Amino acid sequence: MLAYLRIAGWQQLVVVLNFTPAPRHGYRIGVPEAGRYRVLFNSDSAHYGGANLGGESVVAHASPLHGLPASLQLDLPPLAGLVLVRETS
Prior knowledge:
Radius of gyration: 12 Å
CATH architecture: Sandwich
Strand content: over 45%
CATH topology: Immunoglobulin-like
Number of domains: 1
Largest sheet: 5 strands, antiparallel
CATH class: Mainly Beta
Structural class: mainly beta
Shape: globular
CATH superfamily: Golgi alpha-mannosidase II
Number of strands: 7
Order of helices and strands: EEEEEEE
Strand order of the largest sheet: 1-2-7-4-5
Distance between the termini: 31 Å
């Protein structure tokens, strides 16, 4: 498992990679802000021949984790990666 922030100017992308052959349900990671995060890229998408595990969006709550003020819970596909962005109003 590897999770990191990719920061470009004001935009922050959350990248989560599962290098294991097993799906990880309910995997929690810390994020910089609470709110809804939209999945921009899922390498397990049916578009790429995958099973679509990972969903389209997830809500982060103000529960600190990994030194960050909020956290979200993901269903991670096996041997795959997700890229998420926080939605703004």
